Amino acid sequence: MGLCSSSITASTTDSLWTRYQDARLSVRERLTALHDVIHELRSNDVDSSRILAERMRVEALVAKDTLMTALAERDLGIAAILQRDNDRARHHLERALELYLLEGDSAGHRGAGAALSSLGIVHKNAGRMNEAVAAYRRCIAEHILANDEGGTVYALNGLGLVHEMQGTYDSALVYYGAVAEVAARLGMDDMEAAGYGNMANVNAELGRIGEAIELTYRSLAIMERIGDRKGVATCYTSISALKNALGEHDEAYALQQKAHALYTEVGYRQGLMTSGTTLGSMLLARGAVDSAALVLERTVDLVRATDARDVMGRPLRDLAAVRRAQHRTGEAMDLLHEAVLLARELGDAPGEALSLIGLGLTELARGRAAEAVRYCGKGEQLAQVHHTKDERMEACSCLHQAYKAQGRGMEALRYHETWVALRDSIANDRTARQLTRRDMLHSFNKRQLADSMRHATELDELETARTIEALRADRNRARAWAVGGGGLLLLVGGGLWFRTDRKRRRERFEKEAAHLETQALRSQMNPHFIFNALNSINAFIQRNEPDDASSYLTRFARVMRSVLENSRHATVPLHDDLETLRGYMDLERRRLQEKFDFTIRVHPDIDPQEVQVPPLVVQPFVENAIWHGITHKEGKGHITLAVEPRGTQLLWIIEDDGVGRNAPKAQHTEKPTKKTSLGTAITRSRLDLVQKQHGGHAGFRYVDRPTGTRVEVEMPLLRDV
Q1: Which residue from 67, 56, 53, 75 is spatially nearest to 107, judged by alpha carbons?
Q2: Distance between CA 75 and CA 628 in Å, rounded?
Q3: DSSP code per residue over 336-393
Q4: Is residue 201 classed as helix, strand or coil in its secondary structure?
């Protein structure tokens, strides 16, 4: 939710500035006061905070104060983030990290953790999600070394945000829950509120509006208690959006007004841009065209003054809609042409499509149906290429109206039918998504992951304490040996021991992190399987065979029970996993009207009850064999799934006699490529993490055959001991 500290007061800034100018204080004290001034100015006046950070860096360099120089570099990096300059931000933050690591003490580790947390934001903003995750993990490790549990809260929040952006909502909920829990224990009120607010956002995405509202009110209560008016306004904005989704438009409008008034009082420009755009849209929907125009004009002026190009598109389009309602179509066209150019510059295909559709609607309002067809046709084509159904549906509505205005009934009817099909498809997608995510949330053991994170933190804190005590003992012994002439030898040995011990602790932390990430990836596999199985049920029922459909649903329920049970564990007996795969393959075979047979073989040297495997790890390859191999084969096919030992490794072999990977791709309406490639990508990540946790080798390779495809999946041979 982007919840921050309370608004800046002039008296606070003045008192800090006075302290900075007090020559009686040490350089460190004066620079600390200057840093506090920078922090207070940052949210409202980024340029001034950047200029002061440059000044702080120069003075710190003159004083040869490494920590203060690093802090100034970090302040410059944060200013660059706020000014959306990722390259400059990365430069300053990496320089800050380098300086902090030179210190090597608790202050250095704490500063390094803070710099890494900000670097995570930079990578996230640039779309480098893997680098962001790595930065946040390193951040946690540094804060653990500094015995600073509070610092880990920001990294956990960052990891939650990355998972939310990637659509892995179950993992996001766990991380955000950890943020709220740890922050509450440490008295970090603002971050506790942020944890609840972010959980509310995820629940809203999952369609759990009631839970989202409840969580946002918990966040609101904290913000009101600590007097954070900006945070209160942000909560009002969130609750307004949720109420609007429930159809409670009057209450939503009232809350948005309160949020906008609070943002105005505290001078928070980002909030004013967001709430102004939403408020203008609400006013237009209520028919208050002139009031909507006033709000949106101010919002567009603010966005332009701030040069916030990434959020400029929507207010431009909304103001154009107002101008169209005011019959000022020339101004509407100018605004929309600006929005088109902006979207192209940002690579925002949905925004460009919506702007083109707006141009089409404006031309239609001017009585120029042919021009409307041209603009909306471009918008529809762009939306189709980028698979954005909502925008394409808007384009089809515009084209229906334009062709109808031209008297071209057949074309109008065609686009109306496409509009209806898209509407139904969007509704079906939303229903399926909510169903699969709800099942996923029930199956995901959130407490287990939260406990693992807490356990990892406690272990590392304990080990850090032991290390400190050991180092103190080594230091005392070194002094004693120095008297006898043996100090140098002990110092060298102590240094080597410390480096080895720190490496060991880092390796253990990485192993714990891999364990957490394995749980998150495993939870992604489950909705992937459920979604494809639901598609299978839908295809079977559409053939209008109720008795067979009932039998199919019963089998599906049995498979689902097994999937949900297995998903609770990192590994399951090979026997259980094979039974789940057998059920899945039987479902697909029945759906395809016995188009293929299958065989499952286990080598006699393997005890299926004793050997442990990650659940459903080879299911995407079985799915690929069915979808891409057997489906397009002429005649009946066969799939073989074999499991064999190979020394200390376990080898899975999936073979089909289908068309093979190099066969020309058939043209068909439903393409599962995206879904199956997602499953394969998740499997690759899961195998990488299995290798990190258990050693050995884990991976897969394709082997092309004269007919069909062979996939070999290799992993460590794990036994239940």
Answers
A1: 67
A2: 53
A3: HHHHHHHHHHHT-HHHHHHHHHHHHHHHHHTT-HHHHHHHHHHHHHHHHHTT-HHHHH
A4: helix
- Distance, CA of 438 to chain centre: 18
φ, ψ for residue 307 (rounded to 5)?
55, 40
Q: Are 137 and 158 in contact (CB under 8 A)?
A: no
* Predicted TM-score of the model (pTM): 0.53
What are the tokens at 618? Answer: 């080879």
Least confident of 103-107, 169-173, 676-680: 676-680
For residue 437, give the nearest of 570, 338, 557, 528 by alpha carbon: 528
Give the torsion through C-alpha atoms of 327, 333, 336, 341, to 10 deg: -170
**CA 221, CA 549: separation in Å to the nearest integer?**
50
Q: Lowest mean pLDDT of 276-290, 488-502, 654-668, name the range.
A: 488-502
Could you report the per-residue pLDDT of 493-513, keeping only the tens digit for each? Answer: 545 544 555 555 455 544 544
Helix axes 369-385, 349-365, angle to 10 degrees: 160
Average pLDDT, the chain: 80
Query: Domains along the chain?
Result: 10-147 (1.25.40.10), 442-719 (3.30.565.10)
Instruction: Give the 3-state secondary structure of residue 536.
Output: helix
200: three-class secondary structure by DSSP: helix
* Per-residue pLDDT, 500: 57
Contact 176, 157 (CB under 8 A): yes
The answer to whether 497 and 651 are in contact (CB under 8 A) is: no
Tokens of 494: 């102590």
State the residue for tokens 């049995």. 558
Task: List Cα–Cα distances, 717 to 620, 648, 690, 712, in angstroms.
Answer: 20, 6, 11, 15
**What is the spatial distance between Cα 684 and Cα 689, in angstroms, rounded to a whole number?**
9
Strands 611-613, 718-719: pairing is: antiparallel
Using CA atoms in the order 179, 181, 185, 187, what is the torsion angle rounded to 10 degrees? Answer: 50
DSSP state of 311: G
Strands 649-656, 611-613: parallel, antiparallel or unpaired by DSSP?
unpaired
> What CA–CA distances, in Å, run from 405 to 42, 369, 585?
53, 6, 52
Long-range contacts of 497-504 (CB under 8 A, 24+ apart): 498/467, 498/471, 501/467, 501/470, 502/145, 502/467
Beta bridge partners of 702: 711
CA-wise closest residue to 717 among 686, 683, 691? 691
The structure tokens 């237009």 sit at 284
Cα–Cα distance between 670 and 326 in angstroms, integer? 44
Q: Are 400 and 415 in contact (CB under 8 A)?
A: yes
Distance CA 133, CA 510 (A): 12
Can you list the alpha helix ranges (DSSP code H) found in 542-618? 546-566, 574-591
Instruction: Report the pLDDT averaged over residues 630-635.
Output: 86
